[in-house]
Structures are given as structure tokens and as C-alpha cells.
Design goal:
18 helices; mainly alpha; 2 domains; three-stranded antiparallel β-sheet; 3 strands; 7% strand
Length: 366
């Protein structure tokens, strides 16, 4: 009978960083001290040695040794091996995985499932890309392990998308019902202010940033006058109570009306909202944290360090994923606001100002 030619399907080419080295314990014991030190510094060959030992131990427990008589506790038999990979130092290293079968079918090796898990890899990859390694340069910049696979730009990009999507889901699904909100920090965006008004209605007071107000005012003046006017405005704002601060600002506004109408108009616009902390009587204990938007600006700066490297935003989902990943990453580095021990005093002042009674209602004010 004639043979039938069948088309052979070409396998996908796998890129590897050189050849992987596997050291057996007998070989390691025979090495000289210098050679052992080099292996210890690299750790990868020793890691692979222990990987194979761990897999062999489980296979021995399930199927016994080669050509050994079976015992009752051994439920399987050896059945060759399959290609696989394990996670090491944030990269995937190929190995041969022994197979064990029983009368019911394949027996999965628990040790291999733990070694091949991808959680640590995605976390390490996520940080590397977030901190500046581009997907295109990841293979070159990442720690090169001989034999490592799965470092192409498309693979890295796909894994980063999956990992950052998980961070976005984690951030969006947080339960905030137990949070006791006293104050929110927001910049001058009209959308954010409108959202606060919509959520809290008349139960919110706004403290406008004194630094931005001061800089907006002096920007209309000649450069030679700006330094002195900064000091004068700041001295007025640093008065301890509302009456004194408002009284100190009045002559400054009158003087500006004669010198520069634009500067005077900038000072009068929203002036009372720059004195909210004074009016509530908490300026002396909370002015460092809340008289400016510095605490928010520092968060924005940290986010920019991580997200500014993206030259082209393709869609809103990409923006949200990067923002959520950056926020989750910098969250452990954030410190408490200065004067946080006096937030209860701020709460009581807000309750008096807004005429809110009852402890339950106090949790809804900002």
C-alpha cells in the first residue's frame, strides 16, 4: 500500500535566552569551592536542582522508584514526561515534568502546580513595567536567566494588561462602608467639586487652596512686586482666627483695586472659601495639611512618575488600569496627614457650622 503524505503543522517558535543549566546534587557535591560559590551567586542552577528533587520526591511517593515493587500506598505508575516550565526570579524556565498515571487517569503533581503558578511573575512584571521598563525592552532589561521563555513584547504586554486589570478590579470593588469620612482633598477641577456637591449636597464645606489663590493674585503683578506681595498675603492668611485674617486681607484688596484690577478680582473671587479653616476654628491645628492641596499634589506627582512614560493613551480602559495600578502601588508609602489627631475637632466644627445633629449624620459630612 502506498503511503499517504500528510501536511506537518509547524510548531510555534519559542524564544529562549540561551540554554538552561541543571545541576544534580551528586555533581554539586563534587564541585570545588569556587564553582559552588558561583552557583550560589547565580542561584538559578541550584533552584532548578531543588525543583527536580521536589518533583522526584512526589513521583516517588506516588509511583515508587524505577523497577521497584509496588506497595499499597503507591496509587500510580510512571508515564514518561511532558515539557513544562516553572517560575523563577520573575521569569519562566522550561523543564521536563514527570508524568504519573493511575487507573482513573492522569495524576497532577501538586508540587509542579505550586512551582508553575503565575502570581509572583505577574506582580514582578507589573512593577517592572510600571517603574519604566517598556514591553519592547523588557527582554533586554529584565534579569536574564539562561533558558528563560515568555519575554517577548507581546507576551509582556498581555500579562501587564491582565495584571493591571486585576488591580483596577481590586480598587473598584473595595468596601468603603466602614470608612469614617471627615475630609476629602481635591484640586481645582470643577468636575470633582461638582461630584462632592452632588454626593453631599449642602453637607460639605470647601477650603480653597491658599497657595493657588496667592499665586493667581501675584501672577497679575509685575515680577519685581510679586515676592513682597506673596509675603503680605501669607502674613494675612496666617492670622489665627477668621476675624483677624479677614480684617488683614481687606486693606490688601483695597490696595490691589488701585494698582491692578485683575489681581484684585482674583483675590475677591472665592475669598471666603480660602478662610474656611479659620471660620471653623481649626486653622491652628490643621492648616499644614488642609490650607493647600500639597498632600494631593504629592500623590499626583507619584502617579505621574509611573504613568508619564505612556506616550499614547489608546482608550479610557488603559488610563484606568494604569491609574489604579499606580494608586495601589503607592498606597503603602502614603503617610497620615499632619494633625490627624484633631480630625474629631474638625468633625464637631462641621456639625456646628452645618447644623447637623446626631452621630450617624456626622459620618456623612465632608
Amino acid at each position: 500500500m502506498g503511503s499517504v503524505l500528510r501536511p506537518v503543522r509547524e510548531r510555534k517558535k519559542v524564544r529562549r535566552l540561551g540554554e538552561v543549566t541543571v545541576v544534580r546534587r551528586e555533581e554539586y557535591a563534587d564541585l570545588e569551592l569556587d564553582a559552588k560559590v558561583e552557583l550560589i551567586r547565580g542561584l538559578v542552577p541550584l533552584g532548578l536542582m531543588h525543583v527536580h528533587e521536589l518533583l522526584d520526591e512526589e513521583v516517588q511517593a506516588l509511583a515508587g522508584g524505577w523497577h521497584e515493587r509496588k506497595v499499597e500506598s503507591q496509587v500510580g505508575r510512571r508515564h514518561g514526561s511532558n515539557p513544562g516550565s516553572v517560575r523563577m526570579a520573575g521569569q519562566r524556565v522550561p523543564i521536563r515534568v514527570p508524568r504519573v498515571r493511575s487507573a482513573r487517569g492522569e495524576i497532577a503533581l501538586r508540587s509542579y502546580g505550586a512551582l508553575s503558578g503565575g502570581g509572583e511573575v505577574e506582580e514582578g512584571l507589573l512593577r517592572r513595567v510600571l517603574y519604566g521598563i517598556s514591553c519592547r525592552n523588557y527582554e533586554t532589561a529584565a534579569e536574564a536567566i539562561p533558558g528563560a521563555i515568555g519575554l517577548s513584547s507581546s507576551t509582556v504586554s498581555r500579562k501587564f494588561i491582565q495584571a493591571s486589570a486585576e488591580k483596577l478590579r481590586e480598587l473598584q470593588e473595595r468596601d468603603l462602608t466602614g470608612e469614617d469620612v471627615v475630609a476629602l482633598v481635591l484640586d481645582g477641577g470643577k468636575g470633582l467639586r461638582a461630584a462632592v456637591r452632588k454626593a453631599f449636597r449642602e453637607r460639605a464645606l470647601v477650603q480653597r487652596c491658599q497657595w493657588h489663590k496667592r499665586e493667581n493674585v501675584v501672577s497679575y503683578l509685575a515680577k519685581g512686586e510679586q515676592a513682597s506681595w506673596r509675603k503680605r498675603l501669607q502674613r494675612a492668611y496666617d492670622r489665627p482666627n477668621h476675624a483677624e485674617a479677614a480684617h488683614a486681607l481687606q486693606p490688601l484688596h483695597a490696595e490691589l483695586e488701585e494698582r491692578n484690577q485683575s489681581a484684585a478680582g482674583s483675590l475677591s473671587e472665592g475669598l471666603e472659601e480660602t478662610l474656611t479653616l479659620h471660620r471653623l476654628g481649626v486653622y491652628g491645628v490643621l492648616e499644614i495639611s488642609f490650607k493647600t492641596t500639597n498632600c494631593l499634589e504629592s500623590v499626583n506627582a507619584l502617579i505621574e512618575e509611573r504613568c508619564a512614560k505612556v506616550d499614547c493613551w489608546k482608550n479610557s480602559n488603559q488610563r484606568l488600569r494604569w491609574l489604579a495600578t499606580a494608586l495601589v502601588d503607592i498606597e503603602p508609602r502614603l503617610r497620615r496627614v499632619r494633625g490627624h489627631r484633631h480630625l474629631d475637632r474638625l468633625r464637631e466644627a462641621l456639625r456646628r457650622e452645618l447644623k447637623i445633629e446626631g452621630k450617624k449624620s456626622a459620618k456623612k459630612i465632608a
